[in-house]
Amino acid sequence: MAREKKQPQPLKRQLQEDVLSPHNLPYRMRLLVQLLTRRFADVLAPDHLTPLHWGILCCLWQQDGMATQAIAHQLQQLGGTITMGLDTMEKRDLVHRNPDPDDRRISRVWLTKQGADLQGKLVPRVESFVQYIFSCLSAEDYEHLSTTVNRLREHLDSK
């Protein structure tokens, strides 16, 4: 008996089906982000840090003495969110803030010795976590995913 050829569904119908949760791609991407965020929080938990603290530390490890607004801009976070994160980090003696000597309206953030020392401890742990996440992808798949994510971000940021 001859196999019946499946007729391709019209694109409009396929798009309608792709919009319905839990099958649509944005919904699945949101679930992936939630899972990654939880797992990343678990990686940082032994040091009582959050992904926001990690982001702030990364900024300062690369350029100590950054302005609070520059950190917020680099991490694409609201200033108030950064301030709350810095408050916690300052209480734990990971950073300290000082007014900019040239413009007192600007607050600069500096690592303490304890904050600087975390780099040697956390970076290998996070590198291991990142390697695990992408260990199921080939190098080509990883590059394609990275390029696609960047293209989507640029597209959505342009609106």
Summary keywords:
8% strand, three-stranded antiparallel sheet, Arc Repressor Mutant, subunit A, 159 residues, mainly alpha, globular
CATH class: Mainly Alpha
Uncertain ranges: none
Helix-strand pattern: HHHEHHEEHH
* Outline: globular
Distance between the terminal alpha carbons, to the nearest Å?
54 Å
By secondary-structure content and strand pairing, the structural class works out as mainly alpha
Total separate domains: 1
Radius of gyration: 22 Å
What CATH architecture label applies? Orthogonal Bundle
Largest sheet: 3 strands, antiparallel
In DSSP terms (H or I, runs of 4 or more residues), the helix count works out at 7
What is the mean pLDDT? Answer: 90
Helix content: 55-70%
Count of individual beta strands: 3
CATH topology: Arc Repressor Mutant, subunit A
SSE blueprint and pairings:
Elements: H1 11-19, H2 25-44, H3 51-62, E1 66-67, H4 68-75, H5 79-91, E2 95-99, E3 107-111, H6 113-134, H7 139-157
Antiparallel strand pairs: 1-3, 2-3
Helix pairs in contact: 4-5
